[in-house]
Amino acid sequence: MSDLFQDYSVAAVRTGAYDEMFTPGQEARDSYAEVADALGKLSLADVSARADSMARTFLDRGVTFDFAGEERPFPLDIVPRVIPADEWTVLEKGVAQRVRALEAFLNDVYDKMAVVTDGVIPRQLVTTSAHFHRQVHGFEPAGGVRVHISGIDVVRDAAGTFRVLEDNVRVPSGVSYVLENRRAMAKGLPEAFGQQLIRPVEEYPRRLLSALRKTAPAGVDDPTVVVLTPGVFNSAYFEHTLLAGLMGVELVEGRDLICRGNRVYMRTTAGEQRVDVIYKRIDDEFLDPLQFRSDSMLGCPGLVNAARAGGVTIANAVGNGVADDKLVYSYVPDLIRYYLNEEPVIANVDTFRLEEKEAREYVLDNLAELVVKPVDGSGGKGLVIGPDASRDELEALRQRVVADPRGWIAQPVLQLSTVPTLGGDKFGPRHVDLRPFAVNDGDDVWVLPGGLTRVALKEGSLIVNSSQGGGSKDTWVLADSPQVPVETLPRPTISIRERVSVWPVESNWRDRQSEQQQ
Amino acid sequence: MLSRIAESLFWIGRYVERADGTARILDVHLERLNHLPMEERRRVAQELLAVMGARPESEDFGLPELLHALAYDKTSATSIAGSLGAARENARRARETVSSGLWESLNTTYYGLSQHRKDVVGTYRFCNWTLERTAMVSGLADTTVSHDESWLFLVLGRSLERADMTARMLSTRDVLSAGMSWVNMLRCAGAYESFLRTRRAAFGDQHAAEFLLLDRLFPRSIVYALRDADECLAKLDPSAQRVGFINDARRIVGQARTFLEFHRTDDLMSELPEHMERVQKAVAQASDAISRKYFNQADELAWVGEVS
Fold first, then answer.
1. Looking at the DSSP assignment, which residues form a beta bridge with residue A67?
2. What is the ipTM of this complex?
3. Interval A325-343: pLDDT, tens
4. Which one of B2, B111, B294 has the shortest CB-CB distance to A252?
5. Contact B301 A241 (CB under 8 A)
6. pTM
7. Residues in CB range of A505: below 8 A, 6 or more apart
8. How far away is chain B from the Cα of A467, in angstroms, using its nearest Cα?
9. Among chain A residues, CA nearest to B98
């Protein structure tokens, strides 16, 4: 091992977390053998040069996210996160199961609410959720799917067990970095790719497009799909362009669309063209000024009515936010049992529901040891980590929790697992999470092998969000059976076709020059 | 394709060509300007800026201010940095449509803008660098984008801007009447060698102006650029009619071109300013007509009520 890993195990033990790459004795785990090998042969100068060139490529290619009106590159670390095949099989199954349960749940709450009648979750919980939109109550969306695209955040606790941290079934973002990271890593650490089979990620856009086309309104032969973006100032604008580009569909803004007769059209140079499926990357609140915020300039008036009439498929469906509610999250294991009659494959993180009196009292007494989150926050907004918070912050939090117990949940502080990450002149353990992406086409839930691994670049930090100093890692899922000898097809021999060229005789100027000098 | 995207492509074409033309003009004139006495220099700087279509911000406008206004001012659409920034911003908005090669070359150019010294020597290099980058951008646009509608809008913008830039180039001659040689003017347009080979000994003001204005084969001449624009417009709207043109842009461009081509003159030099004004006006009108026809977005969000 090169000295880049000097003192790594000491730092790793200090974090008290599970390390993905090394066992406590600083032996590389089996899945990391190739990576450790490749990194071991590099010096600090090599690693920094490669990291720099990767950063440069990202900037030139415009792989950025917008933060406070400024384009920033999304830092990619050179050490990948590797998931062995057996662990992935479990994760894949767990994610797909969760998506199916949430799909059933959403269909139910916007319809008969059998889940409430049967006493699985309280009615009040659903109706008080900020994202339970009555505007879309009582109709099945065209194509029959609500959760087309989802990102289920998973973490690994100190014991090495995977747990689901939250569900994102509104507009999960980050898949573009998965695609770009793999391209960058192929150039950044080519040595590690050679000896093992890493499951490819580039089929994602194809899968997504086919799922979107499959869920088009009935009776449309050749559906037109578009991606709807809020515009160039959105933090995920890069992702919108990348996905639209890779799927070969138009990227539209609200002002490009018009609704007429419960159908949606886009303005093109050849007049108006019918749109059948909208991959919506706008928050529900801004989608349709007729139904939601009337001051929104981002959406297009009439979209919700068009969806209700079955004239257009909106993916993900409007109103999915109720399933993202962190208080609903705490019931998801029950929902899985209720709808699917299965046991949850991946467990939740233990969660305190603050409306329950006993839990609330316990939480208020132990605020300094817990993480408290707002139920409808995303991107790490409003989250308070007890051990890192000051006395004043905790006091402010206490008052807010008491005032609105429905708005908050509490969880124990999880020591997220760590992966070696370049910081300064050596590798240090940094905490990571994982967001696998799932695509649901109505018949089948497909999970992208791997997903986005986000890493907190600051030592000891547990916050991985890109807006708060997080970076990312390429995520490798190792293929199940390494190197099954593929039967080689007989290939036609390549004949050498010689080229015709007229070669200028005097072109060898260097020789001539020396001749002349003599 | 989406109107909004078509508009972005049109403006990528225009802005890249504008940066290219501005760099050429600045490069040649900087050489002259440096030789002039201080007072003269100030006057010429202001007039040069006026020809490029901008107004000096203060009375105290000298060489450094000129460099800022034409090369480095990122907030102005007249300067090289401003044009390249605007081209890149347009490409960012049409990123899923343009090829990654085209987008990356514009993006890299944008990040290279601030890496130059802003004095006279640095500006020479900056102009050169700009010419290289814009050549690369147009090369990639020609070789990596399908020559469909999107490319046609790009070329349309480029051709119109080129006609406009050449007209401005020719107009700068008046500014530096004291000794602005035609050799320099031709070099400015990169036309010197082509000119020599076609006209041989017949060398003079009249011929050089004629070449940049009327030559049917030199790509930077006004007639050639207008013909290019006309062809793009014809392909974009292929409705063949037996009588007249409905398409405003085609009519304007065609009239401007044929006026030049069929105009008979004894003294081109004295008519030159008038011609240049007409060309620039035509380009502005054509651009308006194109945006009315192809890019017109709804003025505001409107909901069409349902009749049941």
1. A70
2. 0.72
3. 889 999 999 999 999 999 9
4. B2
5. no
6. 0.83
7. none
8. 21
9. A245
